[in-house]
Amino acid sequence: MAPYFSVEQLKVSFSTYFGRKEVLDLDSLSIDKGRSYGLVGESGSGKSVLGLAILNLLASPPADVTGDIVLDGQHLLSLTQDEMRAVRGRNISMIFQDPMSTLNPVFTVGDQLMRVILNKGGVSKGAARKIARETIELVELPDPDNILSKYPHQLSGGQRQRVIIAMALSCGADFLIADEPTRNLDVTIQAGILKLLANLRQELGVTILFIANNLGLVSAVCDHVGILLDGRIVETGSVREVVRHPAHPYTTMLLRAIPRHRREAIEAEIPRDDAYELGDIPGCGFVSRCADRVEACKQGRPSLRLIEGTHFVACGKHWRGGDEDAVGTAHERTATPA
Amino acid sequence: MSNFLARRLLLGFLVLFGVILITFVLTRVVPSDPASQWVGARATAEQKAKAAEELGLNKPLPVQFLVYLNDLAHGNLGYSLDTHQPVTSELVARLPATIELVLISFFAATLIGLPLGVISARRKDKWQDHTSRIFSVGFVSMPTFWVALFLQLIFYSRLGWLPAGGEVSTDIQVFYTTPKVTHFLLIDSLIAGQWVVFKDAVYHIILPAIALAAYPIGLVARMTRSAMLEILNEDYITAARSYGLPERTVHWVYGLKNSLGPTVTVVTLSIGYTLVNTFLVEAIFSWPGIGNYIATAVTTLNYPAIMGVTIFSAVSYIILNMIADIIIALDPRVRV
Amino acid sequence: MISRVSVEALRPRWREFRLRFHLLNRNLLVRIALIIIAVEIVIAVVAPYIAPHRDSIYGIADPALKLLPPSWTYPFGTDELGRDIFSRVLYGTRISLGAGTVTVALSLLIGVPLGAIAGYRAGVIDDVIMRITDVFLSFPSLLMAIVIAAFLGPSLRNAIIACAISWWPWYTRIIRGSAISLRERQFVRAAHAIGTPGPKIVAGHILPNCIGPVIVQASLDFGSVVLILSALSFLGLGAQAPTPEWGLMINTSRNYFLTAWWYIIFPGLGIVITVLVFNLLGDGLREVLDPRTRKY
Question: Quick one: which H or E segment has residue A232?
Fold first, then answer.
C-alpha cells in the first residue's frame, strides 16, 4: 500500500550571487497515515526549507525544486499555483516556529483565524466564529473569546504558539508540518506544546511531519525519525531502532547531546580536524568531526543501506565488504519503511 | 493615549507661539510704513498720525505683541491694510476654494497613488511595475510650480482647451449667481442644478488640481510600493499563503493595512511642501484661495494679512501633523 | 584615529560594500542614472569653459537678440535680455549641484554630531537635544526657509542656510537611534573602560559605524533639496538675478509665457532631470541595501 505522504528524489537548491547552492537532497521519505515522522538536523542542514518546499512556497527564481512529493495520491509539485492554493490549508498545514513573526501584528487573532476559516468556504460568519472558538479550545487555551480579541503582541510566547497551532488546525488539514514549533519557547512550555501535539494526534488522527534540531524532542512525539545531515538523510528508522542502536556517528553525537541522558557533554564535542574540511569536495558532511572516519568517507556520499528491520543508514563504516564504489546512487532498499 | 495627545498638543502650541513671535518680529522689523498704507498714498501727515494711533503703532513693541496675542485669542487677526476688512473674514471667504483644491489633490493621491503602489508591488518587475515606477518617480521629480506652468502652456496657450485661471469664467459669473450652500462652487452648482456653471467650474479646476496632485500621487505610489515589498517578504505573509489565502487578500488586505503606517509617515513629511505648493499653484492659476491672497499680500507688504495666513498655515500644519501621529498610533503595536 | 577594535566591527562592511556597489550597477536604470549624474558633475565643473556664449551667464548680451526661439546658434533660445539660455542652463547645473551639496553637507555637519552626542551621552543632554530637534521638526521646512530668507534677505546663500537648518533634525534622529544601540556594544564599553575620553569614543567608534545609512539617506535627499532650493528661487527668496539659477529663470519666464515657451521648458527640464537621476540613484541604493528585496 502506498504511503500517505512520500517524498522521492527531492532536490532543493538556491542560486546565489556566489553560485548554486544545493540545500536539500532527499532520496526518499515516507509517512503513513496517522503516523508522525520526525526530521532532526542541526542549523544549516536544510530542514527549514523542507516545509516550504512541500507547500511550494519557495520563491521560484532563487529556489529550484525538483523531485516528487505525493500526498494522498496527489503529486504536489506538478500542481499549478492555483491548484496548490486549494491544497494548502485544506490538506496540508504548517505550524511555524516563530509565532511572533508569523502572525500578522496589526490584526487580532480572531480576525486572522476567521479569515482563514472563511476562506475555505462553505460557512457563514457565525459558524466561522464558532469554529474559531472551538479551535482555540482545542489547543487548550482557556477563555477563547478573550484570546480571539487580542493582538499577537499582547499574548505570551506559549499562547502565541498555541494560536499558531490553532491557525494550522482551523482549515481542517490532515497533514501537519510542524517546523520547530518549540524553538523559541522555555523548556517547561515546550513540554506543554509537545503534549498538546501528541494529544491532537490521538484525538484528530492527523499525520505529522515534525522538524526539529533536538533528537530528544522528536523521540517524545514521533514514531519514526530521520537524521538530516547537510541536506541528506543519513539514517532513518523507528524511534526505538535509531535511539537504541544508532548506526551513524552523527546520530551518536546527537544522542549524546541530549542533556537528560547525563552523558558527559564533552564526549559529544569531537574535535574538528581541519585537514578533513571539504569545501567543494563531495563527501560526507560529517567527515571533519567524525571519530570513525575512513578514507572512503572523503570520496563520496554513501546512500542509505538497510541494517535491520526498518533501520537504514548512509555511512562509510557500515559498508559491507566488497562495496568499493562509495558514490552509490542506486537504491538498495529491500523494504519500505512502514 | 490622552497623555500622548497632550504632549503633542503642547509641542504644537510651542511651535505656534514660535511662529507667531517670529512673524510678528519680522513684520515690525521689515521696513514698511503700515500707517501710510492704511490711509493711502494721498493722505496728509495728520491722517497718517491718526492712523498710526489707531493701529496701535505708537506703543512699544512688547505691548503691541501682547495686544496682538489678545486679539488672536479672540479670533481677531487684524485688518487688512488694503481693504480695511477684517483679515479673518477675508481668509474665511477664500478658504473653501483652497480646501477644494487640497481635497481633490488628497483624494487623487490616495485613490490613484495607493492602488498604483499595490499593483506595482504585486507585479514587481513586470511592465505594470515599470510603467508605474517611471510615472511616480517622474511626478516626484518635477517641481510643482513648473508642472503648473507647463500645463498652462500646453493646455491653454498651445491647445486652447482649458482656461488659464480663475475658478469660473467671467461671463458665467455675470450671468449666473450660485447660492452658497457649502461654499464649494462645484457642489453648490450641482445642488442648484446649474449645469453650465458646473461644467465651467470643472474646466477651471482640472489644471490646478492635476498640478497640485502630481507630487502626492507619485509619493504615495512610491511609498506604498516599497512598504508593500518589504512587507511581502515578512513571515506572516508566507504563513498567510500557507493557509491557502488567495493572493488578492494577501496583497489588498494584509499588505495594504500593514504598509499604511510608513506611507502615512512619509505623506506627513510632505505636508509642509504641499502647503507651499498649494499657494504656488493658486498664484499661477489665479485661483481665488488663500494662496493667492498671501501672494498679493506679500507684494504689497500687507502685514496683517501676511501674519494671518502664516498663522493659519502653521495651525493647519500642526493639526495635520497631529492627525498623522494619531493614525500612526493606531497601529496596535505602538504603545501610547 | 579609528582604533583596531572598531575596525574589526567595520571590516565585514568593506566586503559587503564592494558587493553592493557591484549589484548597484546591475540595474539598468541605476546605471543610466549614474552616467547622467557623472555627466552633470562634469558639466558643472567645466560649464564656464564650454558654454557657447559665455557672457550670457552673467552679463547682458545684445538686447536686440531678445526672446529668440531655439536655433543652431542658440539651442535653447534667448531670454528677455538676449542672453543664451543654453549657456545659462548649463551654468545652472553648477549652481544647483553646488548649492545642493553645500546644503546637505551643512545639515550633516550639524545633525550628525548632535545625534551622536545625544545618543551616546543620554540623560539631560539627550533630552535637551531631542526637544530642540522636535521643535525644528514640527516647523514646516519651507515656511522656515521663507522666514529666514525674509529675515536675512533673499539670496542663494541664505536659502542654503534656511534649507540646511530645516533639514538637520532628520539626520540627528537617525544617528541618535544608531548611537543608542551602539553604545551598549562591547567595543564601545571596552573603550570607555580603558578611559578613552568621550569625544574620542564618539568620533572614533560610534560615528564610523552608524554613518552608513545616513549617507544613503543624504543621497536620497539630494533630489528633494534641489527641488526646494529651486522653489525658493522661484519665489524670489533664493538666488537673485542675474544668477542663472533654474528656478529663478522659470520665475522670470512667466512674464513671457505666451510667446517664449522655450524659456519655461528648458530650465524646468534641468531641474526635472537632475532630481530624477538622484531619485533613481536613491531607489537603486535602497534596493541594494535591503537584503530581502535582492533578487538572488
Answer: strand A232-238
What DSSP designation does B113 have?
A: I
Cα separations (Å) of C39 from A47, B44, C33, C46, C221?
A: 51, 62, 10, 11, 20
C17 HSE (CA, 13 A, CB side): 9
Distances (CA, A) of C237 to C22, C99, C107, C228, C255: 42, 14, 19, 11, 18
B245 touches chain A (CB under 8 A): yes
Please report all neighbours of A, defined by 3+ CB atom pairs within 8 A.
B, C
- Rounded CA-CA distance B126/B138 in Å is 18
CB contact under 8 A, B272 and C142: yes
Buried-exposed string A234-258: b where 16+ CB fall within 10 A, e elsewhere: bbbbbbebbbeebbbbbbbbbbbbb
Cα A146 from Cα A148, distance rounded (Å): 5
Assign residue B261 the CATH number of its domain. Answer: 1.10.3720.10
Which residues in chain A are contacts of C296 at CB distance < 8 A?
A: 15-17, 62
Cα–Cα dist B27/B81, whole Å: 13
State how far the Cα of B290 lies from the Cα of B97, in Å rounded to an integer. Answer: 8
Q: Please, what is the Cα angle at A71 between B247 and A28, to 5 degrees? A: 115
For residues C85 and B39, the model is more confident at: C85
What does the DSSP assignment read for B215-255? HHHHHHHHHHHHHHHHHHTSHHHHHHHHTT--HHHIIIIII
Residue C4 lies in a domain: no
Alpha helix positions (H), chain C: 4-26, 28-50, 85-121, 123-138, 141-152, 156-182, 186-193, 198-201, 207-234, 246-253, 261-289
- Report pTM: 0.75
Question: Considering only residues 159 to 188 of chain B, which have any Cβ-Cβ distance to chain A shorter than 8 Å?
Answer: none
Q: Could you give the CA distance from residue C282 to residue B19 in angstroms, rounded to a whole number?
A: 33
The residue range of the domain holding C77 is 18-54+73-293
What is the nearest CA distance from A211 to chain B, expressed in angstroms?
17
What amino acid occupies position A56? N
Question: What cell does C172 get?
Answer: 540627528
Into how many domains does chain C fold? Answer: 1
Q: Report the alpha-carbon distance of residue A211 to residue C181 in Å, rounded.
A: 35
In this predicted structure, what is the pLDDT of residue A270?
A: 39
Considering its fold, how many domains does chain B have in total?
A: 1
Enumerate the β-bridge partners of residue A75. Answer: A70
What gap in Å lies between CA A34 and CA A206, rounded to an integer?
5
d(CA C158, CA C151): 9
> How would you classify the pairing of strands A207-212 and A36-41?
parallel
pLDDT digits (tens, 9 = 90+) for C234-250: 877 778 878 888 988 89
**How high is the pLDDT of residue A281?**
55
pLDDT in tens, chain B (336 residues): 677 777 777 777 777 777 777 777 766 666 556 666 666 666 677 776 776 666 666 667 777 777 777 777 777 777 777 777 788 888 888 888 888 888 888 888 888 988 998 898 888 888 888 889 889 999 999 999 999 999 988 888 878 777 777 777 777 777 777 777 777 777 777 777 778 888 888 888 888 899 999 998 998 898 888 888 888 888 888 888 888 888 888 888 888 888 877 777 777 767 767 877 888 888 888 888 888 887 777 767 677 777 777 777 777 877 777 777 777 666 666 543
- How close does chain C come to A24, measured CA to CA in Å? 18
The CATH number for C50's domain is 1.10.3720.10
Contact call for residues A145 and A133 (beta carbons, < 8 A): yes
Q: Is C3 domain-assigned?
A: no
Shortest CA distance to C268 belongs to which of C252, C246, C248, C251? C246
Q: Is residue B128 part of a domain?
A: yes
Per-residue pLDDT, A171 = 81
Looking at the domain assignment, is residue B78 inside a domain?
no
Give the minimum alpha-carbon distance from C93 to chain B in angstroms, rounded to a whole number. 16
Cell numbers describing residue B235: 513571515
